[in-house]
Q: What sequence folds into this?
């Protein structure tokens, strides 16, 4: 008998018919002798509907008081889901009880609309499990020290599920979603992409942060911090597939280095076309320029991703970085109006039509030449590399957006991702 | 400066456009210097939508665990409303904060779907009012001693508003609704029906319990118990009508006997076609028969309204009572299968096509002949009276359903309700 946490996304909860199927699947696990905690998302479309209503009525200024009300409103979507799922479980003959974030309680800080979980009190949930109940807990939300409802931000239900699993020391946290696992790359770009049966936590973290939309990155961080075994699997299989088969399906996110020895050097290709590149040209090369350029950018709440500073020629250098495409124009204005005059730089150039392509693999740590193989492959395809950034387990390049699919397909092939058995 | 509670029904909250108008109206009152607490219902249709989803998934058996989940689900409708209204108030430039029942907290017993309010802690709300905020509180819901969400049953938001007003010793509780006050009778039946500018609490209680749908009866009981001045008025006036005019509109429910001296003997005609009549025929007339008949009925959770036992002839009597029409068949079956055999009665007769018509007026206390005038009026119209029941301030008759409109119109005229100035 194990303690298992299931998380179901909004699509899986999208209708009463689908909720009934979720209940049947959970009941199957409970009947197999497992203690079950379930974290469902709001029914698909519901959070957007609620926030749409809120947007029509919101004041122009985004104050904490306003964000507090957004959380009050948005959190109801998950509350409806847990109640409906508990009813469906009862209809399946299970004992079941649902809890809102504040009832568990899931304690968070007071950063409305993007709160962080501080602690989870599992006393109540444990008592229910011991009494044979399936416990259904709202994702996405908690309560702050003053008793206000908070939400964790978009995709927060993944984080809730992992946090609950961590707090309860669950044996496994199963994230049911509309894809059947983590792939070597997006199958819509490379039809030969393969599902990975396991992926290391660190690789998953890179893939999530590099634009693979399977899991919310904070949930992966949480899983890593508390070493919660986490599995991504499909909610579109028939609910009555044999439990042994289901328990091995999807992709397991592991923490055991040993298991990786046999794996490929590169596990996957991630990509992201949400970024834009800006370059401050002709910056006087003296100490502190990075801070003088990026300080005002950070103050304007603009996130910076890749940063690149070349060696200087004649006492002047170029300083480039990437930002989210939504922040592109704002960044250009800021640099032109504030930074360039203050710094005595020559000008600002920018390009919103770029993308970032990355190879990710824990095996890169112990294999030399992986990055150069990547550059060689892109060169053969005639793709010019604009920026490069590396970490222990990934190498990213910024290239022209129009080459994105070509680059991903070429790299996928070059690293034999369409062949090796994972 | 007064402390004022506003309550808005689902229709008034039916769209973001209407919510914006509610906010403008509340802001007008706040700007006039009043401390404002607002209790809005769920957006119209929302509670039905939520309970519809729940019904599709509910187990066949109605357990406490199931009812608990219904409350978890249904309570979200009001939570969305308070958040949206607080946002709309902020957009109007007011400081505003919303609270769910559990956040106030509004403490109730654990009777899910029909809980009763036990206490309201007004500490938090008072602090917000003192800080200049408009406080928006969910109607319809509370929290029990174990931290479960409860709801008060249909129309419970009226009760919530009055309970909040009572707990805070508010100067007045204004119930905004889709009618502009309490009428002498339903204007759809009698076009000459007049709006009453005041009505006594006791009359309102009788009218509410006799089928007038303007206010939920429990809210009137609450208002009476705590002597909360309560006004029913229209939410369909323009939000910017002068506040002095608005403050005098609608119908005030009063507790001052003096004000009644000048009033008509009869204040209104109520009617109700939700009932059915059953008669146990040929009951041996001995002590305890009322209990022997109504005991099993009460055990089956069937509410009994009018009860009538005639004098006996030859040691046998007939025992009649009315129940809600939805309980009619169940009552007949129960009497036939359990009561008649146990009692040795002759048979059970019934009639679902009846209605109850009542004259209500606090002046009846001090005026003789009011009941006989009623009977005379009905006799003139050739309407046969099947049952009669009276209290200090009302006289009700049960008649054939088909005469209902005729009876109401005739009585309205006979008691000069279409003429006197209220």
A:
């Amino acid at each position: 008998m194990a303690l298992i946490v299931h998380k179901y996304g909004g699509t899986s909860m999208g209708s009463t018919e689908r909720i009934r199927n979720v209940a049947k699947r959970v009941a199957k696990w409970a009947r197999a002798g497992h203690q079950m905690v379930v974290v469902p998302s709001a029914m698909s479309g519901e959070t957007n509907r609620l926030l749409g209503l809120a947007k029509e009525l919101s004041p122009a200024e985004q104050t904490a008081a306003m964000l507090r009300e957004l959380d009050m409103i948005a959190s109801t979507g998950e509350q409806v889901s847990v109640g409906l799922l508990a009813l469906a479980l009862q209809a399946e003959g299970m004992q079941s009880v649902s809890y809102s974030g504040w009832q568990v309680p899931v304690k968070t800080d007071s950063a409305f609309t993007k709160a962080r979980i501080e602690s989870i009190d599992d006393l109540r949930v444990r008592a229910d499990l011991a009494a044979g109940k399936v416990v259904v807990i709202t994702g996405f939300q908690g309560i702050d020290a003053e008793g206000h409802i908070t939400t964790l931000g978009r995709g927060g239900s993944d984080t809730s599920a992992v946090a609950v699993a961590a707090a309860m020391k669950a044996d496994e946290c199963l994230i049911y979603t509309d894809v059947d696992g983590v792939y070597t790359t997006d199958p819509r770009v490379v039809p030969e992409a393969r599902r990975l049966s396991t992926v290391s936590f660190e690789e998953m973290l890179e893939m999530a942060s590099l634009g693979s939309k399977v899991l919310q990155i904070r949930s992966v961080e949480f899983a890593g911090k508390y070493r919660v075994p986490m599995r991504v699997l499909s909610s579109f299989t028939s609910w009555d597939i044999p439990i042994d088969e289901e328990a091995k399906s999807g992709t397991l996110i592991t923490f055991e280095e040993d298991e990786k020895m046999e794996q490929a050097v590169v596990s996957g290709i991630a990509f992201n076309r949400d970024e834009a590149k800006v370059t401050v040209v002709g910056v006087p090369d003296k100490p502190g320029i990075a801070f003088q350029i990026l300080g005002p950018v950070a103050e304007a709440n603009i996130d910076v991703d890749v940063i690149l500073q070349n060696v200087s020629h004649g006492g002047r250098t170029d300083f480039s970085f990437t930002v989210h495409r939504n922040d592109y124009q704002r960044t250009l204005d800021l640099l032109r109006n504030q930074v360039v005059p203050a710094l005595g730089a020559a000008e600002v150039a920018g390009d919103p039509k770029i993308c970032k392509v990355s190879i990710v693999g824990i095996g890169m740590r112990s294999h030399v030449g992986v990055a150069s193989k990547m550059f060689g492959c892109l060169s053969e395809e005639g793709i010019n590399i604009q920026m490069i950034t590396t970490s222990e387990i990934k190498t990213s390049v910024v290239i022209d957006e129009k080459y994105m699919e070509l680059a991903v397909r070429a790299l996928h092939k070059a690293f034999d991702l369409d062949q090796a058995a994972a």
The longest helix of chain A spans residues 16-31. The longest strand of chain A covers residues 275-284. DSSP finds 13 helices and 20 strands in chain A.
